[in-house]
């Protein structure tokens, strides 16, 4: 009878232990899962033919925003147009109406899907940068069947180990019981079981999860020189360690924006805006990640680095050509239009965003002279769920010199979210004026000065009210500027963008379309007047690869 009780006790222990171990293994894997590094590029043309294997040739590696995300590559062919899209995506949600079935793979095996309106291949995988190397292979169930069988065998193998271990302990118990003069108490077996539970790693798993939740690993970044300072933060050039090579350690140059502890709200607002995957655009600063440095009591934003600096600095140092103006102005308008848009280039809905502090010092210049918008500390997501009271609480924000008349008066129409976009358009017009004032196509080019250059260096709101509201003043556009046909169109656009009536202003999308429609009337060649030397420690190729 005692032997039956012993067997019943141990079989119950075995079954319970097997279930608990399987649950703990699954829980541990979930808690220990780190965010993937994936290739993350816009839809790009490719030379991949849809057979064999090839590289996606995406130059941007991003940290996925969520631990559940996996790497995905999509290959499309419609007529003669062949493209590849590389992204992060949560496999719990459908992508283009498709369920990601192969995301546990270590390599990206492209599978053809029908009824997608074009020839369409998709793959997903769960290794760092695995969506860069693509394998176009015939679909086979063999690997999936093997994976299912292996997963199914895990609990059976665990059960077998427990049975063998139990038998071992039973033999020890039986031998001790037979040779001892007095019986062992049940406590001995409970203690043995307790040791087994400690050995399976349950305590260790709990500790690791705690470390991951409260002590997230920081990127290996070495700060270099300070390159900028604003109201809320300082910006540093920095080196991001990428790993060791035969020639030594390899670094990528990045920018690090550091917020003090008391500027947490500004850091969080900018982080939340940057974390929206739909913000990604060639004319918006490329965001890598955000970090909370608890020891230093600092908050970091890590982004791409652009050695040409901000637009104000660039215009101060350079006289530009008409071609340069066309590139700078058009890219600025496209960046603002993307922020304001309620849909992505693919037609998917996105929340419109207003910058609320557009000025030449909040715009960076890339190696190809296109602009990227940065500094979203005052940015506002125009979610339809925002109430009038919440919009009213946004306050009178921005830089006084670039504030629209209705912002200076605190009379924005809160019933219409388009009113916020119109304030951005006004500020953009002032920046376009700055760009135009330094273009050699206007004739004599004066030294750089900001809009309303006659007011003091850092004017207050009241000073700007006098210039903009009382005097209805705007920066001067001399008649000599409009002798050039391209400049004439730009000046007409500027005039419509800084109209005193917000509803009379053009939209950013309209401005972008005007630049796209403009030709180069006099075919000016010159970028010779605006060439700038790139710092010797950063190659142009490396920088432009980060910027893409």
UniProtKB/TrEMBL annotation:
Catalyzed chemical reaction(s): L-seryl-[receptor-protein] + ATP = O-phospho-L-seryl-[receptor-protein] + ADP + H(+); L-threonyl-[receptor-protein] + ATP = O-phospho-L-threonyl-[receptor-protein] + ADP + H(+)
Q: Which cofactor does the UniProt annotation name?
A: Mg(2+); Mn(2+)
Q: Does the keyword Disulfide bond apply?
A: yes
Q: What is its EC number?
A: 2.7.11.30
Principal place where this protein is found?
A: membrane
Q: Which InterPro entries match?
A: Kinase-like_dom_sf, Prot_kinase_dom, Protein_kinase_ATP_BS, Ser-Thr/Tyr_kinase_cat_dom, Ser/Thr_kinase_AS, Snake_toxin-like_sf, TGFB_receptor, Transform_growth_fac-b_typ-2
Tell me what topology the record assigns in the membrane: Single-pass type I membrane protein
List cellular component terms (GO): membrane raft; plasma membrane; receptor complex
> Which ranges of the sequence are coiled-coil?
none
Which residues does ATP bind? 227-235, 257
Catalytic positions?
Answer: 357 (proton acceptor)
Any stretches that span the bilayer, and where are they? 145-170
What protein does this entry describe?
A: Serine/threonine-protein kinase receptor
